Amino acid sequence: MSDGAIPFDAASLIVAHDEGNAYDAVVPPIAQTSLFTFNDYDEMIASYRGEKVRPIYTRGLNPTVRMFEEMLAKLETAEDALGFASGMSAISSAVLSFVEPGDRIVAVRHVYPDAFRLFGTILQRMKIDVTYVDGRDEEAVARALPGAKVFYMESPTSWVMEAHDVGALAALAKQHGVVSMIDNSWASPVFQQPITLGVDLVIHSASKYLGGHSDVVAGVVAGSRELIARIKAEAYPYLGGKLSPFDAWLLIRGLRTLPIRMKAHEASALQIARRLNAHDVVEQVCHPGLTNALPPGLTGTSGLFSFIFREGVDIRAFADRLRLFKLGVSWGGHESLIVPGEVVLQQKAQPNSAQTFGIHARSVRLHVGLEGTEALWSDIEQAIAIAT
User: Which residues lie below 8 Å from residue 238, measured CB to CB, with a gap of 6+?
Assistant: First the structure.
């Protein structure tokens, strides 16, 4: 578990954008408007020429959205950031801004299932190939990178929680002139800041820990001004996945409590992971915090991990008996959730990364929320008792 230090000035983050608000409001007002008018013709001309940066239309620029983007950029030690209407909008806009037909992407295996489907559907139709590698095997990554345009990472990866040396992988991408991207939703900027490790672009499903209350669907990309400008020039306006002012306002609220929430998720999940690891009905626990040391750059762990039951456990009975843990997708909110691996493996509409790269049929993914460690552990114990 982390030592409690937070790698940024949380206090300055909280107050940074509050000064000068209307009526000195402690919570910034929402610019809930679709467009902005001009005082005169010359002002309008100057704005359209780019001589004056000011809001014109909320799909292009909105003060509340911009406030969130600036806060997130600060958290990720990035020069700039762009907010999107979903995590997948952020992923697709970032990736499509740097590839064209005939190009190739290298991606670590066990990526988020919808990112995997994006690569296997729309990008495949665009004649863009994707090579998957084990991110723990740096030699395999180095062999795959020559000639690629994008290197797409997650660390830890979805479901199986494979953690990588992100700095070493980013350095390999730079050696070959490949744009590196990472989905940093699991660790959040509290426990991993990929820009400081050499990654070019950092992506978040802001629906997860950044929002933290399961009441917003959003995404964000952070990076250098040059790379963000490239995304902003085409994918941002034309794909239309714009973050709304109200959702940005909810995310601003979420960022203010992010460090405290992440510490609570980390502490509770790690205790539960250790107890499961010692339980006689559990075969394996996939949680980076159970290893001897976290990879370089990862300073703590979050509330999401998975474990595998031994044979003979009735997983359906276990899932149905739980009371505090709810059956549900997504994660990162205040509530505790589970997804049995059996369910994911039965999806038939399109292949997913779990089916392609393999997860155990007796596995269960847990998101440990904020209900309290002992209450959650009691819930797990009583459900195990019914299932065995």
Answer: none
**First vs last C-alpha separation in the chain:** 31
Domain membership of residue 166 (yes or no) is: yes
pTM higher than the cut 0.85: yes
Give me the phi and psi of 299, to 5 degrees please.
-100, -5
Instruction: List the one residue out of 161, 169, 179, 177 whose CA is nearest residue 231.
Output: 179
Residue 2, domain member (yes or no): no
Q: Are 353 and 297 in contact (CB under 8 A)?
A: no
Q: Which residues pair with 247 in a beta bridge?
A: none
The owner of tokens 């155990």 is: 360
Cα torsion angle, 329, 332, 338, 341, sign: positive
> Cα separation of 322 and 130, whole Å?
39
Identify whether the C-beta of residue 97 lies closer than 8 Å to the C-beta of residue 234.
yes
Position 179 in a domain: yes
Q: What is the mean pLDDT of the chain?
A: 91
Maximum Cα interatomic distance, the chain, rounded to a whole number of Å: 75
The residue out of 255, 280, 309 marking a domain boundary is 255
Q: How far apart are CA 262 and CA 273, in angstroms?
A: 16
Q: Which helix (H) or strand (E) holds 202?
A: strand 201-205
Residue 99's domain comprises 10-255
Helix or strand run (H / E) with residue 203: strand 201-205
pLDDT tens readout for residues 261-296: 999 999 999 999 999 999 999 999 999 999 889 999
Query: What is the C-alpha separation between 115 and 103, in angstroms, rounded?
Result: 17
Q: Report the half-sphere exposure of 63 (CA within 13 A, side-chain side).
A: 12
Q: What's residue 370's pLDDT? A: 97
- In the numeric block, which tokens belong to residue 223? 């990076």
Q: How far apart are CA 282 and CA 149, in angstroms?
A: 42
pLDDT value at residue 41: 86
For the CA atoms of the chain, what is the radius of gyration? 22
CB-based burial, 187-206: b 16+ in 10 Å, e otherwise: bbbbbbbbbebbbbbbbbbb
